[in-house]
Amino acid sequence: MGAVIDLGMPVAGGAFDEHHPPDAALIGDCVHCGFCLPTCPTYVLWGEEMDSPRGRIYLMKEGLEGEPMDDAMVSHWDACLGCMACVTACPSGVQYDTLIEQTRAQVERNHERAPKDKALRGLIFAIFPHPKRLRLLRGPLRVLQRTGLDRAVRRTGLLERMAPQLAAMESLAPRLGRPEPLPPRITATGERRAVVGLLTGCVQGAFFPGVNSATARVLQAEGCDVVVPPKQGCCGALSVHNGRETEAQDYARAIVDAFEAAGVERIVVNAAGCGSTMKDYARLLGDDPAYAERATAFAEKVRDVSEILDELGPVATRHPLELSVAYHDACHLAHAQGVRAQPRALLTGIPGLELREIAEGELCCGSAGIYNILNPEPARELGDRKAANIVATGADVLVTANPGCLMQVTAAIERSGHPMGMAHTIEVLDASLRGAPASSLREGTHPSA
């Protein structure tokens, strides 16, 4: 077996081609100390070395050194949730996030998936990154939910036996409310402090429109002009996280174009996975001479909504909310973006609100983009584990900052038989600013303005 050369180019005949293989220097940073093991969801579930970050890095090294890519090798990379808890835990600063994304792009180019797996992935990517197609699904979903047919089908267990991935997709669908379209520009209340662009997202915009409305209202109340570019589409996060590099780059270019034309000072995101990807556009588009500099400038403007509100500081009056909330750190907010303190500061700044921490908070809930559809069994186990820890807090409401987490945790808590309110962080702050009753959050009704 040959050695990895200085430039990190893969040995011919091995797992990887020469277009951005896993970086040999980054692989060399891993000293196999094991600090990542207790934070890795799949290692916690199975205790298998090759389903830990250091095990997957070892496989990357083997691939660079000439080991061919096979089903077994790919299965260990596919099993990774991409939660990046290992990045937070690593004392050596190993950039596992970069390594797994480089590896997954290689897998999608160089590995032939089974027809059933390929068809499922094709279906997912024909729907989820397309806001208009997702909105078309709202009608049929609302009919199923209002008639109770969704629960009836679920009780039979037939879909789960025949197509567990499709059953997982159906079970995750949130209860749909009315659409809440936003105007292209919303003027700040009082003195204007900033002009920001709002990413409305794919799943967020179609299934959680109330989150976008709440985000716009809070930003407006805190002195921001809010611009909602009408031509924005998918940010490319799902594509990036699943190795679909070219597709992700196309989405990223379109987003850069849309927000450049809007002329905003900051770009605000309320979905953790989208924010982590948009902050990484400089790397994603680094090889494109027409977009490299523009992508770098764009990425520097991206802020999670909790970050921009923390930077601006509060001016709008917070009304009391007498309730307890358990805050769940979305992985791509806490681990990928390092945003932990700001959401907690927003919540604890609300009079009467009690914040409760969740045991094993660093462990992923099992959502991980489309992981809970592709891998329903381990995702369900992680979801149930997370739900048990959330219920144990005794909180009135579970709060998080990502639509995937909301869907995953809601389904798991429903299975637990201990229903509770569910809300995005910004919905809680919005309720406080509007003086809405705490009962609206406990009951999950989230009344609109």
TrEMBL record:
What superkingdom does the record give?
Answer: Bacteria
The EC number(s) attached to this protein equal 1.1.99.14
- GO molecular function ontology, one term from the record: 4 iron, 4 sulfur cluster binding
Reactions catalysed, semicolon-separated, are: glycolate + A = glyoxylate + AH2; (R)-lactate + A = pyruvate + AH2
Keywords attached to this Swiss-Prot or TrEMBL record, sorted alphabetically, are: 4Fe-4S, Electron transport, Iron, Iron-sulfur, Metal-binding, Oxidoreductase, Repeat, Transport
Needed cofactors:
[4Fe-4S] cluster
Give the co-factor note.
Binds 2 [4Fe-4S] clusters.
Domain 4Fe-4S ferredoxin-type positions: 20-50, 70-94
- Kindly give the NCBIfam families that the UniProt entry links to this protein: PRK11274.1
What this protein is reported to do is described as: Component of a complex that catalyzes the oxidation of glycolate to glyoxylate.
Q: Could you identify this protein by its name?
A: Glycolate oxidase iron-sulfur subunit
Q: Which organism is it from?
A: Nocardioides luti
Could you read off the lineage of the organism from its UniProt record?
Bacteria, Bacillati, Actinomycetota, Actinomycetes, Propionibacteriales
Q: Which gene encodes it?
A: glcF
